[in-house]
Write a structure and sequence with these properties.
- The complex is a heterodimer of chains A (411) and B (310).
- By secondary structure, chain A is of the alpha/beta class.
- Chain A contains 13 helices and 14 strands.
- In chain A, strand 1, helix 2 and strand 2 form a beta-alpha-beta unit.
- In chain A, helix 3 runs parallel beside helix 4 and helix 12 crosses helix 13.
- Chain B has a single domain, classed as Orthogonal Bundle (ABC transporter involved in vitamin B12 uptake, BtuC).
- In chain B, the strands form 2 sheets. In chain B, strands 1-4 form a two-stranded antiparallel sheet. In chain B, strands 2-3 form a two-stranded antiparallel ribbon.
- In chain B, a hairpin with a 3-residue loop joins strand 2 and strand 3.
- The N and C termini of chain B lie far apart (45 Å).
- Classes of the chains: A alpha/beta (411), B mainly alpha (310).
- At the A-B interface, helix 1, strand 7, helix 8 and helix 9 of A face helix 1, helix 4, helix 8, helix 9 and helix 10 of B.
Chain lengths: 411, 310
């Protein structure tokens, strides 16, 4: 009997190990072909939540970077260099992100990293990359302090990490844009502001509240919810009793979708508005309640409406990825392409060979690049932020997000 | 104070849900002194079992007709996993030091999550769960009861009644009480304690399936991570009510649910406490309550003082 239970235990462990390793190699398309013997291989690291509730966005980021690397290889964008991607899963957890950053830094072939999705995760990674001089380009971080330092609100902008860049606009722009739309276009006057206590959500919702009040609106209540919970009925009751005519939610779609539904089920038939964190199809399918009228802002113009994005959408479909490119696909592609361009510049400046201090050269080249990307003109300002200030308001109609207003942010 | 009745109704529905899950913790603990941390995952598996039945039924089946079948499907899935966990993960460790099964439970919890993540179709994101359509019922005085909350408000008392009768009246139920009091003597009296232990896991699993369906109806979605928070809250409820006592588990759940709802609504109205109120602090206040209760009654609200056998 003793042996038998040992056998069972071993089998269980083996099965578990196999399952876990299967998770690790979910799709290996990213490895690319590394056949050219004399060619140098440059690895673009990817850090995003590939599992868990935000995996819809993370998989889109991973695939889009992979597409950029493949395109660069097919076009022979940089002579003598083959690009590979190394996607790592951070599960939206800061500690995992830091661990992944350490892993990527240790690999000398990594010359740039795309990611992460969450501003909170980025905070734990920036320092690791900065010490190694490794370029990081986030397609989705919107928290202002990542690029402008902790005192940005007081106007003292200092760039904390010279290796940090992003293709996404900051919350300052997005939150104010949302407030302007809610007040001037949607004619809402009483907002109830909810956040999820995370870096992204708190920042975005406080900027929204400030701007909404500045424009003459009234914030009739604020509350906070906890990530991964599903019962927000008490908060929903408070929203109803406050008499608000719009709910602004700073947070991500898993909680946002449920909050919106529970507010409506509590009897308050008012729209919920949020940032790019809720702009995902999963926001609408969070429950069977209709989300008609809910609003979400996102950075840039709609990818499928931009002329520059048509090729991206076509190639993405042709590549046959299992998951859609989601909200950040275009920005991830542009982020990866920016790294490709920086590597190209570093190689060209070094007589067609990869320089010995490639990481420093790539970081230096980043601030000078400028190209027409999927999401428009891609270049970075003195803080590493994108110079692209286009935003779009989307509204839920039926079971899809439809763009209702695209504009360049005006102060 | 006009929000009080509504707060109580919301808290009661949430608390009854916690209570149903807490039964699973408390029954297993009462009999084998094991904290089955994988119980949250049993709930999650019950939810996916019920969803499978829903997807298998023709699309136009009314939800009221599908619900009993979904409950049966969920119960089959969660009872099967709960008893298999007992047989293959916990029984071999029954005589091992207490820490071994505890760590096993945590490992099992991660393994079950990953199995559903990897093998259930589309389980990598939240999967939609059917909900009753239509507005909530409005009682007098502006109190709303959601249609989906009605399910847990009816199912929880029925389940408790059935369990109470079973444990108090039936032969097997009395054998369970005997095993909980003293397993060795129970064995000498001819009680098949192994069978009783499996039964405790099975009942916990069945209650977990009811809770999973209730949670799916309330939130309109289930996902592979849902068991963690629910399990944690239900475990808290079991401790609050007095672990090992089935009525304590339900009472603990209801107290916890109402405490969460009330602290979200009221704490910030207390002068000077605005910063400490609202949904962000509800868990803090729920645990403050737990600590206060345990300071005054270390055995929990309805728990009996027992020698520490763990």
């Amino acid at each position: 009997m003793r042996n038998r239970s040992l056998l069972v235990l071993t089998t269980a462990i083996a099965t578990g190990a196999l399952t876990l390793s299967a998770c690790g190699s979910r799709d290996d398309k990213g490895s690319g072909d590394n056949s050219g013997g004399s060619k140098a291989t440059v690895v673009i690291g990817v850090d995003a939540p590939l599992t868990g509730s935000l995996s819809a966005l993370g998989q889109g980021i991973k695939n889009s970077v992979d597409l950029a690397a493949r395109t660069a290889n097919d076009n022979k964008e940089v002579k003598g260099v083959t690009f590979k991607t190394e996607p790592l899963d951070d599960q939206a957890v800061p500690a995992s992100g830091q661990q992944n950053a350490t892993t990527l830094v240790a690999d000398k072939a990594v010359l740039g990293v795309v990611g992460p999705l969450n501003s909170g995760v980025s905070q734990s990674m920036q320092g690791v990359f900065a010490r190694a001089g490794l370029t990081q380009v986030s397609p989705a971080n919107t928290s202002p302090e990542l690029s402008q330092g902790p005192n940005w609100l007081k106007g003292q902008k200092t760039r904390p990490f010279k290796t940090y860049f992003r293709t996404a606009t900051t919350d300052i722009i997005q939150g104010r844009f949302a407030a302007q739309y809610a007040h001037n276009d949607a004619k809402k006057t009483k907002a109830f502001v909810v956040d999820d206590k995370q870096t992204y959500g708190v920042g975005l919702s406080s900027i929204f509240a400030e701007e909404f009040k500045r424009l003459g609106g009234q914030v009739v209540g604020t509350d906070h919810i906890t990530v991964k919970e599903t019962d927000f009925s008490s908060v929903a009751n408070k929203v109803k009793n406050s008499g608000a005519d719009i709910v602004y939610f700073g947070g991500q779609y898993p909680e946002g979708g449920l909050l919106s539904d529970q507010v409506k089920r509590a009897g308050a038939h008012i729209p919920t508005m949020g940032g790019d964190g809720i702009y995902d199809p999963a926001f609408i399918t969070a429950s069977s309640e209709s989300n008609d009228g809910d609003l979400g802002t996102s950075v840039g113009y709609p990818v499928d409406q931009l002329d520059s994005a048509k090729t991206f959408v076509k190639n993405y479909a042709a590549a046959g990825y299992k998951d859609p490119y989601a909200a950040y696909g275009g920005y991830s592609y542009d982020a990866a392409w920016a790294i490709v361009q920086a590597v190209k510049k570093a190689v060209e400046d070094n007589n067609g060979k990869l320089p010995a201090d490639a990481r420093d050269k790539v970081t230096a080249a980043m601030s000078k690049i400028s190209f027409d990307g999927v999401t428009g003109k891609v270049s970075f300002d003195e803080f590493g932020d994108t110079t692209n200030k286009q935003l779009t308001v989307y509204q839920v109609k039926g079971d899809a997000w439809k763009s209702v207003k695209s504009a360049t942010f005006q102060d | 104070m006009h929000a009080l009745p509504q707060t109580l109704v919301s808290g009661l529905a949430l608390g009854a849900l916690y209570g149903l899950i807490a039964i699973g913790y408390t029954m297993v603990y009462g009999i084998v002194q094991l904290i089955n941390f994988a119980h949250g995952e049993i709930v999650m598996i019950g939810g996916f079992g019920a969803l499978t039945i829903h997807l298998w039924l023709p699309g136009d089946t009314p939800l009221a007709a599908a619900l009993p079948l979904m409950l049966i499907g969920g119960a089959i899935a969660s009872v099967a996993v709960a008893t298999a966990a007992e047989r293959f993960a916990y029984r071999p460790l029954r005589d091992a030091p207490r820490l071994a099964p505890l760590i096993t439970a945590i490992g099992l919890s991660i393994a079950l999550q990953q199995l559903v993540w990897a093998f259930y179709p589309d389980a990598k994101k939240s999967r939609g769960f059917p909900q009753f359509q239509g507005d909530s019922f409005e009682l007098a005085n502006n109190i709303h009861i959601q249609r989906d909350d009605l399910f847990v408000l009816i199912a929880a008392p029925l389940c408790m009644l059935a369990l109470g009768l079973f444990v108090a009246r039936s032969r097997t139920g009395r054998a369970m009480q005997a095993t909980a009091q003293d397993p060795d003597t129970a064995k000498l009296m001819g009680i098949n304690t192994d069978r009783i232990i499996v039964l405790a896991f099975a009942i916990g699993g069945a209650f977990a399936a009811v809770a999973a369906v209730a949670q799916g109806l309330r939130a309109g979605q289930i996902n592979f991570e849902m068991g963690f928070i629910l399990g944690l809250k239900a475990f808290t409820a079991a401790v609050l009510g007095g672990i090992g006592n089935i009525y304590g588990a339900m009472l603990g759940g209801v107290v916890l649910g109402i405490a969460e709802a009330a602290s979200t609504t009221y704490i910030q109205n207390i002068p000077g406490m605005h910063q400490l109120g609202g949904g962000g602090w509800k868990d803090v206040w729920a645990f403050v309550l737990l600590i206060l209760v345990l300071l005054i009654r270390p055995q929990g609200l309805l728990g009996e003082r027992v020698a520490d056998r763990a």
